[in-house]
């Protein structure tokens, strides 16, 4: 089927669905959502040539039908071709238009059965998480069967089996797992506290002889096609105190092209949260030792991921604060030159405090202090090497119903080469954010940002601070439908390049359309702490999202 015919069929299907969206199908109900993201790339002498195919578009159509306890659904995806920088577009067997997901499900009071593509998570995701993230081009759902049985109010058992999706196809591996959740508080009738225990098991099977060029037994010392992973977790809440913890272990596994031998893995996760009136505190610690787990030993890239190991850092929305996000070290590799054992110790802490005016509720102060760090695991000499450090704070002030200001400061230290370069690249980032509302439905928001690179000019390099940066954004909104923005990010240290962007969006009901044009810097695009690399490009971008 040629591209033009596929496009016509796809558009016609959408039109028919939209026209009948408000009509019930018998006693049941149909719901649907559409997301489309398209870019036309422009040659730019400053940052390089556009990709050979100057047009890319990612499209997702999801349909769901419910009738009482029964539900079913499908998801159709179209890449014509995939957007520049998405790993699924680099696959040799990439499909332009295909059925990416389907399921049928029955839910009763005590049990639930799903056949099709499964999205689920055990514990905190240390050993298993199947989910979709369209910003990353990631979909690692399991095609198979899942059953959930609630034996009582306090005991739930879950089992699943299937083959994982790897980009536009399925991996050659099979995954099976079981999860048991036990509520101790419900057993003893404790109303004042919550205490839940969870135990999980995951097994991945994949033949080791599919590629004659990969001798797993001789080179990696991996002599079994089975991978076993176990985890146990605790969740405790009492009044304003919440505690969570999880321990995970896995049998010998490898990360091809990274590991040199099969190794066992281990992870520890601990979290504490406390709230008192307008003060709240949270602290998280995580240790990862060879816990990066692939869907397939023959796959690669961000999408080839069976578990969920995001960076334990603050997720910024400001341009310069998110210039060089931390990439988690999820494998354990001994670097022969530096003598550094990779893997990661990481921690994060947050303090929030709100100061409210009792007589005028729309006037307040919000204070937030955040700190995060990451270090390699100990070496033979007993030392750890810094990977990342960020201490930041922001102050939000609502002066009146019309005026709000935010000031943010962040000091970030990034060590290149996964800690092998022991001298960090340090930067101080300042952000001023002002919002003014007027005329009932108008608002104007502006940002001014500055990044000060503290390293000498001889230490600047592409992919790090590259010297000082400035950035600005101006956004005008006409509620509830129109919004216009213009922004620029300029490197005043090394490259002297402007990364400009401008656009307009329109929203009505559940539909939103945005059109923009700009130059985009190469770097990491992150979602939920998981990142993919995106090359630089200049072009026009059209986005459409709707639900009906």
Verbal overview:
There is one protein chain. This protein is mainly beta and 548 residues long. The protein has three helices and 33 strands. It has helices at 3-19, 184-188, 216-220, and strands at residues 29-42, 55-67, 70-79, 97-107, 111-118, 120-121, 129-130, 132-133, 138-139, 142-150, 155-166, 169-170, 174-183, 193-205, 226-238, 241-253, 263-276, 279-289, 334-335, 340-341, 344-356, 364-375, 386-398, 403-414, 425-438, 442-453, 469-478, 482-491, 498-508, 511-520, 523-527, 530-534, 537-547. The strands form five sheets. It has a 24-stranded antiparallel β-barrel. Strands 6-7 form a two-stranded antiparallel ribbon. The protein is globular. The model is unreliable at 1-22 (pLDDT under 50).
According to DSSP, the number of beta strands is: 33
Structural class from helices and strands?
mainly beta
Q: Are there runs of 5+ residues with pLDDT below 50, and where? A: 1-22
Query: Quick one: overall form?
Result: globular
Helix content: under 10%
């Amino acid at each position: 089927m040629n591209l033009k015919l596929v496009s016509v069929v796809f558009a016609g299907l959408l039109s028919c669905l939209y026209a009948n969206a408000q009509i019930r199908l018998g006693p049941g109900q149909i719901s649907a959502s559409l997301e489309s993201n398209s870019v036309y790339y422009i040659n730019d002498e400053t940052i390089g040539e556009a990709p050979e195919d100057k047009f890319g578009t990612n499209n997702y159509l999801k349909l769901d039908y419910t009738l009482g306890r029964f539900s079913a659904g499908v998801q159709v995806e179209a890449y014509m071709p995939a957007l520049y920088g998405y790993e699924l577009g680099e696959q040799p067997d990439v499909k332009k238009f295909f059925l990416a997901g389907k399921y049928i499900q029955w839910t009763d009071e005590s049990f639930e059965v799903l056949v099709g593509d499964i999205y689920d998570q055990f514990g905190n995701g240390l050993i298993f998480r199947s989910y979709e993230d369209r910003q990353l081009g990631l979909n690692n759902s399991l095609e198979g069967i899942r059953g959930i049985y609630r034996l009582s109010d306090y005991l739930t058992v879950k089992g699943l089996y299937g083959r994982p999706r790897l980009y536009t196809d399925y991996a050659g591996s099979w995954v099976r797992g079981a999860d048991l959740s036990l509520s101790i508080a419900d057993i003893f009738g404790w109303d004042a506290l919550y205490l839940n225990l969870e135990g999980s098991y995951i097994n991945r099977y994949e033949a080791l002889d599919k590629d004659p060029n990969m001798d797993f037994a001789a080179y990696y010392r991996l002599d079994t096609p089975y991978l076993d992973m176990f985890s146990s977790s605790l969740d405790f809440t009492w009044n304003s105190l919440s505690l969570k913890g999880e321990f995970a272990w896995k049998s010998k596994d490898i990360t091809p092209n990274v590991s040199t031998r099969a190794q066992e893995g281990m992870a520890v996760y601990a979290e504490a949260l406390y709230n008192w009136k307008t003060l709240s505190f949270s602290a998280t610690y995580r240790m990862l030792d060879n816990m990066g787990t692939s869907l397939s030993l023959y796959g690669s890239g961000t999408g080839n991921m069976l578990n969920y190991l995001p960076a334990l850092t603050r997720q910024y929305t400001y341009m310069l604060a998110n210039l060089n996000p931390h990439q988690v070290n999820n494998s354990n590799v001994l670097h022969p030159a530096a003598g550094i054992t990779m893997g990661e110790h990481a921690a994060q802490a947050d303090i929030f405090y709100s100061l409210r005016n009792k007589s005028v509720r729309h006037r307040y102060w919000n204070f937030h202090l955040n700190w995060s760090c990451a270090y390699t695991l100990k070496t033979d000499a007993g030392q750890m090497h810094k990977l990342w450090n960020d201490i930041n704070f922001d102050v939000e002030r609502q002066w009146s119903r019309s005026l709000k200001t935010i000031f943010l400061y962040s000091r970030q230290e990034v060590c290149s080469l996964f800690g092998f370069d022991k001298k960090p690249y340090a930067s101080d980032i300042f952000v001023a954010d002002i919002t003014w509302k007027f005329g009932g439905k108008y608002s104007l928001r502006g940002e001014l940002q500055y990044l000060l690179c503290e390293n000498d000019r001889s230490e600047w390099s592409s992919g790090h601070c590259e010297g000082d940066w400035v950035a600005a954004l101006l956004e005008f909104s006409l509620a509830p439908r129109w919004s216009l923005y213009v922004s620029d990010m300029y490197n005043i240290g090394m490259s002297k390049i402007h990364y400009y962007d401008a656009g307009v969006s329109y929203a009505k009901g559940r539909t939103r359309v945005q059109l923009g044009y700009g130059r985009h810097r190469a770097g990491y695009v992150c979602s939920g702490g998981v990142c993919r690399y995106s090359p630089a490009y200049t072009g026009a971008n059209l986005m459409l999202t709707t639900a009906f």
